[in-house]
Design a protein that fits this description.
The complex is a heterodimer. By secondary structure, chain A is mainly alpha-helical. Chain A is built from eleven helices and four strands; from the N terminus they run ααααβββααααβααα. Chain B has 15 helices and 16 strands. The chains are: A mainly alpha, B alpha/beta.
Chain lengths: 290, 394
């Protein structure tokens, strides 16, 4: 084991982990409040990445404006999807799974038709590297981490310090009790979908210039996001942060020191974790009611 | 009333029969002969398939404009029938059934990739339909109607190392990486054979899962071995550009070599022209800077269809239509047994190279296309430049 690599491995883990946090946080909000596993979350992430391509790369819109546009556009689309597709079947677990999966295929196929199937690349808005503490940091990744921290901070403030956040938490904890307190469950589900999809859009627009953009990138994103929320705890925001960072560090250390066997060990770890903590590290156990 | 209806029916049937008869080839008119394209036209691999199909249509149009082909005393105009397999085996099976049973096609370019080729092979072999796939895994003496129409990843990966050994003496330590797919594995092993055959040391050989975009952990592990060259073998253009960008960000200053030349625009935007400077790639010619014939061909293609991401693909289907139809005329028949044997023994002089089917030692049957030369290109100032033409031993 080459210990001289450890600073770089930590840097890699942090950068990968924050990417996962960004993608998974929106999924966990939607799941926590609507109780729907939004399998199309990766496709909302993909649409955010296409915003980076079309607004920033092609139209020359300033990058920060592009981020806001992506959050808004994808968030509003998510609210529309909740109102039309998810709300009528929200109480039915299996139909909601089928609808969410169908939506994922629909969005990916439509994107391939509209934008073309080929891979697209986005010029880095923050090129260059920074050498510090024995590791090399990509400037654009550092900026993504900073923006992600700002977004997560804003989300934490919204959920824990505002009236809207209390209402959202109320619906997540007990819909009937929240409803009796005059909170609109439909409204909160709609808002949570807007926030969740907006976060997916933010993840896409931030990570688009770092990676590549194509209509099918949602599949891997949802896979990683599901691992993160299972690790961290279903429906738990702190759990999404912990799970994302944990996955990033496991992958970084594992792939550097162990190579391809990392995925095997990762899933072995997840199996053991679920056996002893079925709700993940910071979540609670979910039981499907028939 | 009934008599009136019966009369009307007779008149209608007569009109329909007369119309149908008038639609057939009349005296002196040409027949139509259909050739099939089977491959991705939608989905993530569409950018590979579309230029191949376009090239086939361009060749068919040129041949038709020149009067078509004459086989057994009859003149035939060519028609390309394209079927989309979406790059998935079940799509390939559905598409090949349509081509064979509905369109009665006997010769098909495609499919791309071993998964699709192996899926359609039982149907095509049983129906004596020749396929010209991109897959060396499907070749064998028990499959006489199956050809591979691109040199194997193993063969492609080997070609650049003798040149590197001779012209870049600083290259001693090689790091290989590839997607964890059959193609990736073949390419990595080919590169290993190529590098070790020249006495170079392979200091790292790593696989990564398709779809991953963050190569930092893998590169950290590889760069710790101080390679002089990184060869991501068969990695597609998008992830390849990410590997280049991320490796440069991690301080790697050495050479990149690949046996699959990525598109310029993907490299410039994805990796950055500065990061991509000096990459060496094996593949086809840089058409705009090639021979007058290559330039004219490519100019005609892009005027008709626009610029393609996979430049090497534009001549694949084009060449196949000319080569196959030449054999039809030579044997004066469309009979698959005659045509397949004649093709396997033929040579075809194209604008990229002279081709034949080889691979008898490896597969027990000569069904893998071989060119007599390959091209090495270098990325310079945001563009591919011709570097060397490497003659291949036949």
């Amino acid at each position: 084991m080459d210990v001289s690599l450890i600073p770089q491995v930590i840097a890699n883990g942090l950068m990968m982990g924050m990417s996962y946090v960004l993608i998974a946080s929106g999924l966990t909000i939607v799941l926590g409040i609507t109780r729907i596993i939004n399998f199309a979350h990766g496709e909302f992430y993909m649409l955010g990445a296409f915003c980076a391509y079309y607004f920033f790369q092609m139209a020359g819109v300033p990058y920060l404006v592009t981020i806001l546009l992506a959050i808004l556009a994808v968030g509003v689309l998510g609210m529309g999807v909740e109102r039309v597709l998810f709300r009528p079947i929200r109480e039915f677990f299996l139909p909601s799974v089928v609808v969410a999966l169908g939506l994922a295929f629909f969005l990916a196929g439509t994107a391939a038709w509209l934008f073309g199937p080929e891979e697209k690349v986005v010029t880095s808005p923050f090129p260059g590297v920074l050498n510090a503490l024995g590791a090399t940091f990509s400037v654009e990744r550092l900026v993504v981490i900073l923006i992600a921290i700002v977004i997560m901070g804003g989300l934490w403030y919204l959920i824990t310090r505002t009236k809207l956040g209390r209402a959202l938490r109320g619906v997540a904890q007990d819909r009937e009790a929240a409803s009796l307190q005059g909170i609109s469950v439909n409204g909160m589900c709609n808002i949570s979908m807007g926030i969740g999809c907006g976060l997916a859009g933010a993840a896409g627009v931030l990570l688009g210039p770092i990676f590549i953009v194509h209509p099918y990138l949602g599949a891997l994103a949802i896979f990683k996001a599901l691992i993160v929320i299972i690790l961290g705890g279903i429906g738990s925001m702190p759990g999404a942060v912990l799970g994302g960072l944990l996955l990033g560090f496991i992958e970084s250390f594992g792939l550097t020191y162990l190579g391809g066997v990392t995925d095997v060990l990762l899933f072995a770890f997840i199996f053991v974790l679920i056996l002893f903590r079925p709700g993940g590290l910071m979540g609670r156990v979910w039981v499907i009611r028939h | 009333m009934k008599k009136w209806l019966a009369g009307l029916l007779v008149v209608l049937i007569s009109v329909v029969l007369a119309f149908t008869a008038s639609c057939g080839p009349g005296e002196g008119e040409a027949n139509t002969y259909k050739l099939g394209y089977l491959g991705p036209l939608t989905g993530p691999a569409a950018s590979w398939g579309i230029p191949i199909k376009n090239g086939m249509e361009m060749a068919a149009e040129e041949i038709n404009d020149a009067g078509g082909i004459v086989v057994a005393g009859e003149t035939y105009m060519l028609q390309i029938v394209a079927a989309d397999d979406r790059f998935v085996p079940e799509g390939a099976v559905t598409a090949v059934q349509k081509l064979i049973y509905d369109d009665k096609i006997q010769y098909i370019w495609g499919p791309i990739g071993s998964a699709c080729a192996l899926a359609v092979q039982p149907i095509t072999e049983e129906n004596r339909v020749a396929i010209f796939a991109i897959s060396s895994d499907a070749l064998g003496p028990e499959h006489p109607y199956t050809f591979s129409y691109l040199s194997s990843p193993t063969a492609r990966a080997e070609v650049g190392y003798p040149w590197l050994k001779q012209n870049r003496p600083e290259v001693q330590r090689v790091a290989l990486m590839a997607e964890h797919t059959p193609t990736g594995e073949a390419a990595l092993e080919g590169a290993r054979v190529g590098a070790e055959g020249q006495g170079l040391e392979v200091v790292a050989a790593e696989y990564f899962e398709p779809g991953i975009t963050d190569f930092a952990p893998l590169l950290t592990r590889m760069l710790a071995k101080n390679p002089d060259v990184i060869d991501p073998s068969s990695t597609p253009a998008g992830p390849f550009s990410l590997i280049v960008k991320q490796a440069r960000e991690m301080g790697y200053e050495g050479l990149f070599y690949t046996s699959y030349q990525p598109a310029e625009e993907v490299l410039v935007v994805g990796a950055g022209a500065e990061n991509a400077e000096g990459i060496i790639a094996a593949g086809g010619p840089v058409y705009p800077k090639g021979t007058p014939e290559q330039q004219a061909f490519y100019q005609k293609y892009i005027e008709k269809y626009g610029k393609e991401v996979w430049q090497e693909a534009v001549s694949l289907g084009y060449r196949w239509v000319y080569w196959t139809t030449l054999i039809f005329e030579q044997v004066d028949s469309f009979d698959p047994d005659l045509v397949v044997e004649a093709l396997a023994e033929s040579e075809f002089e194209g604008i990229v190279a002279t081709y034949r089917f080889g691979g008898e030692e490896t597969y027990g049957i000569a069904r893998e296309v071989e060119g007599n030369q390959t091209y090495l290109n270098i990325f310079h100032n945001g563009e591919w430049e011709p570097l060397a033409i490497i003659p291949l031993e036949w």
